[in-house]
Structure formats: structure tokens, C-alpha cells
Design brief:
There is one protein chain. The chain is of the alpha/beta class and 289 residues long. The chain has helices at residues 3-18, 33-42, 70-82, 102-113, 157-174, 199-211, 222-233, 244-262, 272-288; strands at residues 22-23, 26-27, 63-67, 88-91, 128-131, 140-142, 145-146, 152-153, 179-183, 218-220. Strand 3 (63-67), helix 3 and strand 4 (88-91) form a beta-alpha-beta unit. The N and C termini lie far apart (57 Å).
Length: 289
């Protein structure tokens, strides 16, 4: 090798140490101040609440995205812990709400954080997208508040079916390489203020009708799994939400299904008090800043 060629090689190697490079769609230089700022600007909760903290992508790990309602907010942290060191698990920055909101909200997330919309943004692709809609479709609202006596249902069964088809079309076109996992809608108990017990079954039946057209989409039957969990670990009578123990159990189940899609074995999920301590420590630190 002549002297001139040697200088070119040394120069190229030197530049490689400073210029972020990409491998398999993952940014090698994962530190991104612009991304962290964009994330905080997406929601008022992102700067102060532990479940909504900014997470840096990890080089070489699969990327998992969770889209869902407040039930998913409850279990996401347990999914993260179960897949810690095996996958980066990120979630929509806000409540996913109804099926009619899905595309708008996930697009807001994508355009805030990913290139080319954010100049220094993420460039990786999702390996798995675990998504769910339903609880906000079957609820009844009156003056924007839950009220099944006077309210109107957010989405009819026909609307729900059409929205699911649009969601799948969008996901397949926008994230063609991602493995899709659809989670069935969790149960509605008797006495719920703005929902009717049994409606989750009806909406899940429509969802399964749609999903039969897409056998490549994995089904996480979170409804069936959650029936006994809600009976024992509901936040209260007539409440669709779960206490921390219930959310932990759901997180373990979700991590199991995602792990199967990634061909990885989830970790043993830490007990509730370990996660709760992390919540409190983080939010205490934020208050002192």
C-alpha cells in the first residue's frame, strides 16, 4: 500500500470514530438530545412521570412498540422489566384512545421522533408492534364524560370493524417489516360507569373476524387472560383498571407473547414493590429539580 492510500485509510477510520453510522436500521450513536427534547414536548406527562420517561434506544437490541389504552400504561413497565436486556420496549406517549384515533396518534409519535421529520431523529425500524384498541370504542360519553345511561357509544361495531381494517392497512404499509400482535380488549365488569358488561366480547368478536383475514398477525388473547385477573385485582368494584399486581400479571403475559415473536425468553419479572420504588424515586428526583 502506498503512502497516499495509507493516509486515505487512516482518515476513513478516524472519521468512523466520530460520525454516527447505522447498522441494520439501528443508530450506533444512540444519544440523541433532539429526540429527548421532542419526546418531552409530545405530552405534559413525559417529563415528570416514570412510565413516560424518555428511553434511549440500545444498539443491537430489537425494538418493540406498544400501542394501547390506560390498561397498557399499567402493564408496560412490567413488559420492559421482563424483556430488559433483550429488547427495547417503547410505548405511545399518551393514551391510545379509540380506534378512530389510532393512525393520528401513532403518526404524531413517528413524525416527532423519527427521521426525516426530525433531522437528528431515530432511524431504526420496529421489530414488533403490539397494539390494542376497544375499551374507548365501546364506552358511552355524555358531555365528554362516561355515562352509559345518557351517553352515545363512541364507535359502533361497524365503525370499529372499518377502523381496524384501516389500522392494519396503515401498519403494513408504514412498518412492513414489523411483526404485528393484536391484543384483544380487556373485560368490562358489571357496574362500570360508562361501559356495558359484555360489550368487550362483542367487540372482540368483530376484531377476530377482521384478524382472520390476516393470519400473519399474532393474537394475544388478553381478554381471556384478564377475566380472572380483573376479578381478583381490579382497582375497585365496577372498574376496568387493575391494581399493580394485576398490571404485573398482564405485563408478564404480554412479554411472553412478544418474547415468542422475537424468539427470546423473558426475564423473571420483578415484584411490584421493586417497580413501585423506581416510580417513587424517579418522580421524587424530578420534583427536586
Amino acid at each position: 500500500m502506498n503512502r497516499r492510500s495509507s493516509f486515505k485509510l487512516i482518515g476513513a477510520l478516524g472519521l468512523a470514530l466520530f460520525v454516527p453510522v447505522r447498522m441494520l436500521g439501528t443508530v450506533i450513536n444512540t444519544s440523541c438530545e433532539a429526540c429527548a427534547t421532542a419526546w418531552k414536548n409530545l405530552s405534559k406527562f413525559n417529563a415528570t412521570r416514570y412510565p413516560f420517561r424518555y428511553l434511549e434506544p440500545t444498539q443491537g437490541l430489537p425494538k418493540v412498540f406498544i400501542y394501547g389504552d390506560s390498561i397498557s400504561i399499567g402493564y408496560t413497565e412490567y413488559v420492559r422489566e421482563s424483556l430488559k436486556g433483550k429488547a427495547d420496549v417503547m410505548r405511545l406517549h399518551i393514551n391510545g384512545n379509540s380506534s378512530a384515533e389510532f393512525i393520528k396518534r401513532i403518526e404524531a409519535f413517528r413524525k416527532a421522533l423519527f427521521q426525516p421529520f426530525l433531522k437528528e431523529g431515530w432511524t431504526f425500524s420496529w421489530d414488533v408492534i403490539h397494539f390494542n384498541v376497544g375499551l374507548h370504542d365501546l364506552k358511552y360519553l355524555y358531555n365528554r364524560k362516561l355515562n352509559k345511561e345518557k351517553g352515545e357509544q363512541v364507535s359502533s361495531l361497524e365503525d370499529y370493524e372499518a377502523n381496524l381494517k384501516n389500522i392494519i392497512k396503515y401498519l403494513k404499509e408504514t412498518y412492513p417489516e414489523a411483526k404485528l400482535i393484536f391484543a384483544t380488549t380487556t373485560p368490562v365488569p358489571e357496574g362500570e360507569e360508562g361501559r356495558v358488561a359484555g360489550d368487550a366480547v362483542r367487540y372482540n368478536k368483530v376484531a377476530m373476524k377482521v384478524m382472520k383475514q390476516y393470519p400473519e398477525i399474532t393474537i394475544n388473547d388478553l381478554y381471556t387472560y384478564s377475566v380472572p385477573v380483573l376479578e381478583q385485582y381490579a382497582e375497585g368494584p365496577g372498574n376496568v383498571h387493575y391494581n399493580a399486581t394485576g398490571s404485573r400479571l398482564q405485563g408478564i403475559q404480554v412479554a411472553k407473547i412478544i418474547g415468542e415473536a422475537l424468539d427470546v425468553e423473558p426475564n423473571v419479572c420483578p415484584p411490584v414493590d421493586v417497580i413501585t420504588a423506581k416510580f417513587k424515586a424517579y418522580e421524587s428526583k424530578i420534583k427536586k429539580q
